[in-house]
Amino acid sequence: MKINGRARKVTLKKRNFSRSLQTPASDWALVAIPGLIWGASFLFIAEGLRSVGPNGVTFLRILVGFAALSLFPSARRAVSRADWIGIAAVGVLWLAFPLSMFPFAEQRVSSALTGMLNGANPLFTAVVAAALARSAPARRVLAGIAVGLAGAILMALPAIGEGRSSAAGVVMILAALISYGFALNIARPLQQRNGALPVIWRAQAIALVLTAPLGLPDVIGAHWRLAPVLSLLALGALGTGVAHAVMAVAAGKLGATRASGTTFLIPVVALALGVLVRHERVTLLAILGSIACLGGAWFMRRSGIERTSPQPVAVNLPSTLIAPVSQHGLELAAASESEES
Question: Domain range for residue 190?
Answer without folding.
Answer: 26-340
